[in-house]
Every structure is written in structure tokens, then in C-alpha cells.
Design a protein that fits this description.
The protein is of the alpha/beta class. The chain is built from seven helices and seven strands.
Length: 206
Amino acid sequence: MKKILEVKDICKTYQAKNGEIEALKNINFDVKEGEYISIIGPSGCGKSTLLSIISGLESKTSGEVYIDGKIGYMLQKDNLLEWRTIYNNVLLGLEIQKNITPENKEYVLELLKKYGLYEFKDKYPMQLSGGMRQRVALIRTLAIRPNILLLDEAFSALDYQTRLMVTEDIYKILKNENITALMVTHDISEGRFQSRQQLEFAQQNI
């Protein structure tokens, strides 16, 4: 498998009234195509900062990030627009990129059909469960055809049982679409669950 992401000697320092705060120091790792990597750590340890640096939303103090392809980003909240239908929410990323084409609209409809949301395409976010809203948020991200997906505590707003179901659901979707993923979480059980899924998937394909 080829390397799709490389993080090399990343450091991040913030200036505060009482001096410098070192958020990240000499972070090094790489992610290969098709992998689902979990980074586990307590709140405030710099996990979200690292994802923001990888995505280009935040500057680094030093180090380098090498990316082969397009990045998609899922945040803690689904950030669906309540006044837009599910279909129009999924189109949002393409609208921002000014990339609404007949081909991409057809791809969005295919994703909605494939993952059980087509019959809800004309409904509004408030009419969906928390798990379904997260699936819509994922499809909105997939619509831009990313090569690697960053998940920033993407399921933390859900209750425990729903979170387990949604993480398994989304893991299968990412594998079906051959999307590489990098997830940060403070939940050890969630990270272990994803690692177990990765191992089981690998064993099935030996």
C-alpha cells in the first residue's frame, strides 16, 4: 500500500500571557492507503490541533505534512443546516467548491441510495435520528470524493450504544468506498473498537 499521509516532526507552540504553551512536539507518523488509524488521548492533549494542522486550517510552528490526495473533514457536530433538505445538505460541500455538475449530483444520489438515505432526501435534519444525521454528514463529505477522511471526535455527541452502531456503520462505508481515515478520540473503547474492525477486515481479505 502506498503512503497517503506523512506527518514529520510537527511542533505547535502557542503564545500565552505567562509564556509559551507547547501543544505538540516532534509528532511523526504516516498513514497508508486504505488504513483506518485511531489516535487516542485525553481532552486538551493536542489531538484536534493536529488534525487542524493536517487539514491546513491551522498553521504549524515547525515540521512538514505531506498529503497525496484530497482531504475530507468530519467534526464533532454534524453541522447540518436545519433549513435545507437532506439532499441539499449533502450538496453543500460541492456548492462551496463550485463543483455542482450532473455527474456529481448523480453520485450524491447513488450514495444516498447505497447507504439507506434516499427515501429521506426531501426531509429535514430535525426529522432524522442522531445516527442518521451523522451518516448524512459523512455522505456530504464523501460527495467531494476525498482520498483521506479526518474524524475529529465525530461521534462524541451520541450516546454510547448509538455511537457503537454508528462507528461500525461508518467504518463499513469507508471501507466500501476505499477511503483512508484518521480518527482522534478520547474514548479508549471507541479506538479499540475501530482497531478490532481494521484487524477483522484485514483477516477477511488475506
